[in-house]
Amino acid sequence: MKAQKTTKQTVGRTANRVLAILFALVLSGPSAFAQKFTSEFENFTLKKWGGTYVIFNFDSRHEVVPYLAVSESPLKIKKSGKGFLNPPSEIAGMSFALLSTPTKKHEVLIENLKPGTKYFVSVIGLRKDNGPIFFPLMNKKFTTRDRKLDIRFTKIEMLDDSDDLSPGEFRFGFFGYDGKLAKLINPDPIFNLKYGEVSIGSDDNLKINLAHTMTFNKESLRLDVTGAEDDDDTLTSAEKIAVFLTTGVIVPETLPRGGLAVGPHAGTGENSALEWATARQTFSFPNVTNIDSGNDPWQRETYRIKFALHANPNKVDLEVKIHGFIDVYYQ
Length: 331
Description:
Oligomer: single chain
Number of strands: 17
CATH topology of the largest domain: Immunoglobulin-like
C-alpha cells in the first residue's frame, strides 16, 4: 500500500509539472509554442523571387487564412496570436487576406522589397472560428536578388560645337555616381569611361558604343557626361583634355601642367585652354515593380530607361546631347 501511494504521488507530481509547463507556454505566447512543437505550416518554399518581390508556397495542417509578414529583423508575435509586435516601420511586406476562405493550400505574393537584402518571414493564421493558430512558422530567412544595370551610351548629338570656323575637337568623360551621395557631396565616381578625341561639328551626330554593367542596389544613379573642346594650342589637344578628364584639372595657357582643380563633375565653363559643358541626369530605382512592363512581377522587374542627357549651358556656346539607355534586371 505504501509503495502504491508513493507511485501515485510521483505520477501526480509529474502530471502537475507537465500542466504547469504547458500553462507557462500558453502564457508566454505562440512564439514559445513554435519553439516546442511542429509548426502548423509545412512544405514552405520560395516558388519564385526577384529583387523586389517574393512568392511563397506552403501548406497548413488545418484550414486557415494565413497572415504573413516580412521584415529585415526577426519578427515577434503578439500573445493573442493575431498579429506581430514589430512596429509598422520594421515590416517590409505583409499579406492578410481578410476576405479569403480558409484553406490548406497557400500561395502568397509580397512586393516592394529592397534588392540584395536579407529578410525574415513568419506566418501565423486564423482558423474558421477566427481563433489564432498557436503553431506559427517563425523567421525563415531569404535574400532578394541584386539589381543589375547595363548602361549604354549610343550617340553624341552636337547641337553647337562652339567653334565658328571648323568642327570642334572633343574628348568626353562619362561618369556614374550614387545619386543620394551626389546631392550632398562630390563623391568619387562609381565608374569612369572616356571617349577618345573626335572632330565633330554643329548639327552632326556621332554613333558611339560605350557600355558599363554593374550591380547597383542603391536608390538612385546620377550620370554625368562632360565634353571638353580645345580652344588653344599651348598644349596639344590630347594633353590638355586628357589631364582634364583624368584629374579634373583645367589647364589654362599660362599653366600648362597646373590649374584649377574642379573634380570630374566639372559643370560648365571656359578658359584660355578649354571650353567644357556637362550633361547630367539622376535616375531613380524605387523598390516597386514597374507596372508598365508586364503583368507578372518578374516581367515588371525587367525594363529599359532611355535617356538624352542635355548640356545646354548659358555660360558657353557649347551644347550637346548624349543618347543612350539603361537596362534594369535582377540576378
